[in-house]
Specification:
This protein is an all-alpha fold and about 400 residues long. It has helices at about 10-25, 35-65, 70-95, 95-110, 115-160, 185-235, 245-295, 300-340, 350-360, 375-400; strands at about 370, 375. Helix content is about 80%, strand content about 0%. Helix 4 packs across helix 7 (about 245-295), helix 7 packs parallel to helix 9 (about 350-360) and helix 8 (about 300-340) packs antiparallel against helix 10. Its main location: membrane.
Length: about 400
């Protein structure tokens, strides 16, 4: 039985995109009814390593000066993406049980009843926006990947079958080195072509899947913080003459606040290394894809590299924006509590309780890079500046 069956359909929708992509790669976070999951994962890993060796050898030839960069640019680009994806997968997969626990705990806190009309509208607005972003990344990145993979096949078919160009060579999405002639006949060509397609989609699905998984978790946490802020507003507006009942409501608020902060810390403990990898590799991959889009003479391939650059930037800006929104939602609770509650007119216990909320909400509650640097929209700006510096350096070195 799949563990996801215990989650409501409404709650599971944002996670369905990431879990579907990772499931295609035999990486399961919420399924327990899969036969031989480790064997399937090992087979995929073996095939992936064989594919990686054939592409990394091209990178070696490029460094030795035996190949021109314009010919090997697509292979260089996918080499960086493969390296990043493999590292991030190794960092995250070891925390499968912890991630599942986080999803279950968020589900246990997710409220579908007991909300005011304003809270329901706000929740629907926030989640609708988050789901739209996830869908956009999901479809844009996958469509871009398929275009990069199948355009060479279409071009080869047009030249060979329609234009009858005998000098035209059969082309692959990426240059690879194999212990046989991969273009000796159509059957071998198609087999190698599909081998590249399968492995590339493994990389793309794993890469996008883990990013969307993080975005989904952060989206839910952000929404819960916003709803908690609305709870405080409602509490302020209430004219409850019973101090004990009001104190009980405040204690309930503190309990939910503490649970959310704990979930943010757990999420950051798991994903902080992946965030660092995303920012570090993202700087390089945006640079190399953008550089390839500029120097390649083939207009179609250059356009595909431009689309890939846009896809990478979409993921980076969403990472930084999600982290910024979550951090902003937590700090707003502190400001709201301080400015709207007349805490200094209560007794000592009441004052200490409100002060505890204010002090705890003032602490940074965000995703970090290696538990050091909080991720904000300024981080995205720094990534763009660094990528542009590398881009200018490569343009100069290549002889722009």
């Amino acid at each position: 039985m799949a563990d996801s069956e215990y989650l409501s359909k409404e709650f599971l929708l944002p996670f369905s995109f990431s879990l579907d992509l990772l499931g295609k790669c035999h990486i399961y976070y919420m399924k327990t009814d899969v036969q031989f999951p480790k064997l399937r994962l090992c087979l995929n890993l073996t095939i992936f390593l064989l594919h990686s060796l054939s592409l990394y050898y091209v990178l070696y030839l490029l460094f030795e000066g035996l190949m021109d960069y314009s010919d090997a640019s697509m292979t260089v680009n996918i080499d960086f993406i493969m390296s990043q994806t493999f590292i991030e997968a190794c960092l995250i997969v070891q925390h499968k049980n912890a991630i599942k626990d986080i999803i279950y705990e968020i589900n246990s806190m997710w409220r579908t009843t007991g909300l005011s009309e304003e809270q329901v509208l706000l929740k629907d607005k926030l989640m609708g926006r988050f789901i739209l972003r996830i869908k956009l990344i999901y479809w844009f990145c996958r469509l871009t990947a398929y275009l990069n993979l199948f355009v060479p096949l279409v071009k080869s078919f047009i030249r060979k079958a329609i234009l009858q160009d005998e000098k035209a060579e059969l082309t692959f999405p990426f240059l690879g080195r194999y212990p046989f002639d991969a273009t000796s006949n159509v059957a071998i060509y198609l087999a190698v072509f599909m081998f590249q397609v399968y492995n590339t989609m493994l990389v793309v699905n794993t890469y996008i899947g883990h990013q969307l998984l993080l975005f989904s978790i952060v989206s839910y946490l952000t929404t819960e913080f916003v709803l908690l802020k609305e709870d405080m507003l409602i509490l302020v507006k209430e004219n409850d003459s019973d101090p004990l009942r009001k104190m009980e409501k405040i204690k309930g608020f503190i309990y939910r606040h503490q649970r959310l902060i704990s979930l943010v810390n757990k999420t950051n403990d798991i994903f902080n290394a992946m965030v660092f990898s995303q920012l570090m590799f993202g700087t390089v991959t945006v640079c190399v894809f953008g550089f390839a889009a500029r120097i390649l003479k083939d207009t179609i391939v250059a356009a595909l590299n431009a689309l890939s650059t846009i896809g990478l930037l979409m993921i980076l800006i969403n990472l930084c924006d999600h982290a910024e929104r979550m951090n902003g939602a937590t700090s707003e609770i502190s400001d709201l509590t301080y400015n709207n509650i007349i805490w200094y007119k209560g007794d000592v216990t009441y004052q200490k309780t409100i002060l505890f909320i204010i002090l705890r909400a003032q602490r940074s509650c965000s995703l970090t890079s290696l538990k050091y640097a909080p991720v904000t929209l300024n981080t995205f700006t720094m990534v763009l500046k660094t990528a542009w510096s590398f881009f200018s350096l490569m343009s100069t070195a290549y002889g722009d």
